[in-house]
């Protein structure tokens, strides 16, 4: 690694990390610039293990031994800043010690992701990065083989999604699918039954569905407000619901994903 002390928060070498609390800037900079931000040693470790390449690292003096172990001889510029510079630069205290600007890999083809998968979680149009990250963490921890995201779903490599997922976005195969007419055809061609989680009178209770589940399942989750789109419901082979109690009609989408994935993988 190459240690480069930086004392001015306005130095252009730090532009990748600038004003990360500004949502509009993040949307422009991360996807369009071919970068994403990985925050914390654990997240960066998982990104490196997945073969992702760091463009640079931002840290403070007291974390340099940890950063050296993390990078393990990689030739990466490491910008060393004070706490005050880090706060001025990013807009928040960098409590986790290290951040990395990572080069964004090309997403794999859908056929590649589906080839050896049997249990797939599909996130339709979910915008909240916290929910996306939590859904990925549930998928990784509870045994889903892959995650698919629709064209209007938020970015799994968004800084907050990555952080909430604890880096599991790097260990679960995932890719972005096309519109439902094409995506459903590809899922069916690979032998997947499309099971849509929705509140509908003809929905099958999740425990009943899990008891007689098919060999390959694509479990589709929608937004908390509007639920699944009409297009998603139209291509679904089954509609499934999580039985609720206490006058509650549904769960947070990340919680629902965890329950549903647990049910179909057990």
UniProtKB/TrEMBL annotation:
The lineage of its organism: Bacteria, Bacillati, Actinomycetota, Actinomycetes, Micrococcales. CDD domains: SpoU-like_rRNA-MTase. One of its GO terms (biological process) is RNA processing. Transmembrane segments: none annotated. Pfam families: SpoU_methylase. Residues 37-108 form the RNA 2-O ribose methyltransferase substrate binding domain. GO terms for molecular function: RNA binding; RNA methyltransferase activity. Keywords: Methyltransferase, Transferase. Belongs to the class IV-like SAM-binding methyltransferase superfamily. RNA methyltransferase TrmH family. SUPFAM superfamilies: alpha/beta knot, L30e-like. It comes from Microbacterium esteraromaticum. GO terms for cellular component: cytoplasm. PANTHER family: RRNA METHYLASE, RRNA METHYLTRANSFERASE 3. It comes from the Bacteria. This is RNA methyltransferase.
């Amino acid at each position: 690694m190459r240690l480069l002390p930086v004392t001015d928060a306005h130095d252009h070498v730090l532009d990748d990390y600038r004003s990360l609390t500004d949502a509009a800037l993040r949307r422009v900079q991360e996807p369009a610039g071919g970068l994403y931000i990985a925050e914390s040693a654990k997240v960066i470790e998982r990104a490196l293990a997945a073969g992702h390449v760091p463009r640079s690292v931002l840290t403070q003096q007291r974390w340099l031994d940890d950063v050296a172990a993390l990078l393990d001889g990689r030739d990466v510029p490491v910008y060393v800043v004070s706490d005050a510079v880090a706060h001025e630069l990013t807009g928040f205290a960098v409590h986790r010690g290290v951040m990395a600007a990572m080069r964004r890999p090309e997403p794999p083809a859908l056929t590649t992701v589906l080839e050896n998968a049997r249990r797939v979680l599909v996130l339709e149009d979910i915008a909240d990065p916290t929910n996306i990250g939590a859904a990925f963490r549930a998928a990784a921890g509870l045994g889903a083989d892959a995650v698919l995201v629709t064209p209007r779903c938020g970015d799994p490599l968004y800084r907050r999604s990555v952080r909430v997922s604890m880096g599991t976005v790097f260990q679960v195969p995932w890719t972005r699918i096309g519109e439902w007419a094409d995506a459903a055809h590809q899922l069916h061609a690979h032998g997947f039954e499309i099971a849509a989680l929705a509140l509908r009178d003809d929905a099958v209770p999740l425990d009943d569905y899990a008891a007689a589940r098919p060999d390959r399942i694509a479990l589709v989750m929608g937004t908390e407000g509007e639920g699944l789109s009409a297009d998603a419901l139209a291509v679904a082979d089954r509609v499934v619901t999580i039985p609720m109690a206490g006058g509650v009609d549904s769960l947070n989408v990340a919680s629902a994903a965890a329950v549903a994935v647990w049910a179909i993988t057990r």
